Amino acid sequence: MFYDINIACITFPAQPSLRSIMKSNILVTIIVSLFLFTASSAALAKGGDDKVKSAHAECPYFFKSSEEFDKKLEQLHQNLKLSAAQEPSWKDWAGKVKESREAWKKSKLDHDAWKNLTVIERLEKRLVLTRERLAHEETNLTAIKAFYAQLTDAQRKTFDEQFPHGYHCDKP
């Protein structure tokens, strides 16, 4: 048998009802949810994109400057140990890669200029930029095929290992 306990004119039931248990569960859930929301909001406000920055920083193919890019190309050039007959093809390919990189830098979006455009105008501009980048990729592919065809098997292996897999440091 359960008996009510009466202390200072306050009655405590001996066994809580289902309704009071549900109320307390809901209250605990709300408190925990608010805490988690506050903690995650604070973490995002503090620097939510730090992971993206650190992922790029750790990526061997993310170049912060043109100097880093040139240094990486020079390192690849030395590791390939090209013959005199392969040098013109290297210069052609490296020149097109640098040209494509500079064109990509110039085509980066100017966010302030885009703010005043309508949705249709923004989408049209994005489509134009996408077509330009695709044309650069096709030019790069043609140049790299010509260069790759002149490499020996050992050089191809080195080139495959040291050439970037993608723009966001994806690994195969």
TrEMBL record:
Annotated Gene Ontology cellular component terms: periplasmic space
Protein known as: Spy/CpxP family protein refolding chaperone
Protein source organism: Candidatus Methylospira mobilis
